[in-house]
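Checked the freezer inventory, then went back to the computational side. Two predictions to log before the end of the day. The first one is the construct we discussed on Monday; recording sequence and tokens without edits.
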Amino acid sequence: MKFDPDDWRDFDWRDFDFGQIRVLWVIPVLLLLIALYTSVYTVQAESQGVVLRFGKYVRNAEPGLRFKLPFNIESVSMVPVKRQLKQEFGFGTENATNPNQFSSEQTLERGMVTGDLNAATVEWIIQYRVQEPELYLFKVRDPDNTLRDLSESVMRTVVGDRTVDEVITVGRQEIETDALAQLQELVNKFELGLSIDQVQLKNVNPPQPVQRSFNEVNQAQQEREQLINVANGEYNKVVPRASGEADQKIQASEGYALKRVNEAEGDAARFNAVFAEYMKAPEVTKQRIYIETMQQIIPKLGKKIILDDAASQILPLLQLSTTATK
């Protein structure tokens, strides 16, 4: 129906087709809704968004509600930068959230040769984070599998530099430290955009056919170390005590020697002093020495009766001892 403005008075509004106007309004509204829907997105708290414009990296988006160009002009890839990821080697945990957490070739991964040409089964894990999302997404085609290959290569190198005893017993911590440093160096060199947090050894054992014999040898070595520790304990308990007693006796002997020397020097000085007085008055000195000597000796003799040469008899009533009156 063609509408003529000059004939508006004769126009019947009941014959006008309003459906055409509705269709014309629906299309812009749908386009607006689609634009709004495709331009709004949310970045989770543990993730970071990588915004691409026509497939080219543009920027990173922090957590929260964000906007981008609609109609897939800009697309967003979410990368869990704050989540710690894990890879397992030589074994696998069921129901793992990370699809690259373990490999189907676990037997091949854990079989290694040590530096002294012995076989060992080594199981370990690595924990890592995505540090640079743009490198993680675009620098290497498959960064997770590349990390697995690098980790296996580093662990074989580190284990191959050590003996089987070091790998299984005392060298575990050193292996973890060296493997962590070498793996991080290779990750930086390949620009994977990852940060290695930890390399941890799990089960490290000799091959199954010789495991029983190795356990017996290991038990014998532990018993040997135990006996050595017990002997060292006894040694540390006895030797210091004997040394202390020897020092005590030496000090006592030195003190006794010093005492005797001082006494001898005092006696010599006293004798010289008496001799000097004797030279001045010999008779007086003899008499004084005699009296002093008797003063020291007589009290030690007990009760004695001294009679004069002229006495003819002893008094009959004289009590010679205290027991006579009892």
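The second is the one RB wanted added to the comparison set:
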Amino acid sequence: MTRFIPIIFVLLWSTGFIGAKFGLPYAEPFTMLMWRMIIVVPLFFLVVLIMKRPSISGKDAAIQGLVGLLIHGFYLGGVFAAISVGMPTGLTSLYVSLNPILIAIFSGIFLHTIITKREWLSLFLGFLGVAIVIYGASKWEGVISAKGIGLLTVALVSICAGTLIQKKYAQNVGLIRGSMYQYASSLLLYLILSFTIETGEVEWNLTFIATLAWLVIVLSFAAVLLLMYMIQNGEATKVASYFYLVPPITVLQGWLFFDEQLSWLTFVGGGLVVFALMMGRPLKAKTNK
């Protein structure tokens, strides 16, 4: 069953962009994420107690806190904030899908891996396919601003750094307890941001509550645990390459939920993404000794 984990992860992770679009009309981005973490942290604490997960050292807890700030804090915060200032959902998902290329570049420095020419080619073909999908579907509708690009840059760098740190320093940390520390640190960040630069107001309605429930159960529990599992048990570059599938699937979800138009370019680009992943998947990065 482990062979299906990346596909399940991509399907779940891609719904985060749609969830942001559903929920942001009723709350500011950091406030929305604050409430998400307010629910997630106690639930993870209960799961740790019920499943009697072993404790971890203070050093490992600190590392998990840092990973949480990067992936659940600055990455999610940057994405949600960018969408809230008008950045197109398609462009947002495309921009952060540069993650596999950054991971490949910095894996040589932090993880001492060598990326082959074929792997580099698959990475760039994957990004090209994503660009074709988004261009054919949305034509960059929305407000593209320097602030939005800046927020997405913070998000992109953060998830890249968080992935590398998790891979290098957290190989033996339990997923459940480690995730609890990650979410706890991001909760502190959102509490500060919500009450300092936002109003903290929420329009509580059925749509917002349903969106929040989806983000908590499907994203914070299922998708993130699958991501942490893949990072621990796979090569960082391989794991990151699956993010290429997120924008095409996000586009399809946009068509399903928001009646966004598709074109033949959507299918051409999607096919190129799948080809790129198949091209890079059989390879194994070599390790310098």
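For RB: Residues 282-289 have pLDDT under 50 and may be disordered. The radius of gyration is 18 Å. Let me know if you want it refolded.
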